[in-house]
Write a structure and sequence with these properties.
38% helix, 240 residues, 5-stranded parallel sheet, alpha/beta, 6-stranded mixed sheet, Rossmann fold
Length: 240
Amino acid sequence: MRLMLTRPRADSERLATELRARGNEVVIEPMLEIVPVGPLPPLDGVAAVVVTSSNGIRTFAAVSERRDLTIYAVGDATALTAREAGFTKVESAQGDAAALGALIAARADPAAGALLHIQGRDVTGNLDDSLIARGYSIRPAVMYEARAADKLSMEAREFIAGRQIDVILFFSPRTARTFVRLVTEAGLADRCEAMIALCLSAAVAKAGSALIWGGVHIAVAPDRVAMLQLCDAVQESGRT
């Protein structure tokens, strides 16, 4: 089975390793590029760092030598990225922004210092507001942005034109919308009928609904593990 991954390259490379170990061929075609945009903010008085994506912790780790700060991560993948970057005090909320807020409320003392929230330029949600309401001092720091790809690579065009991609994975509405735009601009929208789209959530599936797919499946939970399970299920169904 040949799969196409559309996440930013660093995230796709990690996922590709797992998928190849399962006997799949993998094509990496990032729909977003992560670009640093902000300087390292002052860390005086900061007690912990809050990150809602692996991109956030990678960006922070690239410009700061501090590894003594506690990291509050939204999920296990982000927590793993933090540990790989050398942070030793890492807490995972194993969920979404609401779970992250609950974890911080349970583990962090508002009097211990400020929480530095590493964000992307297009951040959504109200995590900061909910933490402020709980008495925390929040320092938002926009340190990266996700720039959409402007065209499909030649490799991707050839695979799609030849109907040689069996499965494509989408982890966010923006990656799905970007793919829809680029494949349409390339005149290859009709080729998507040969592909099965695996989507992290219903919102992601909706973002890709402008195309006609060979099938659309939504993960039972919005995480990497559930997406891998979807891949396994599709691979197994192809064998029977």
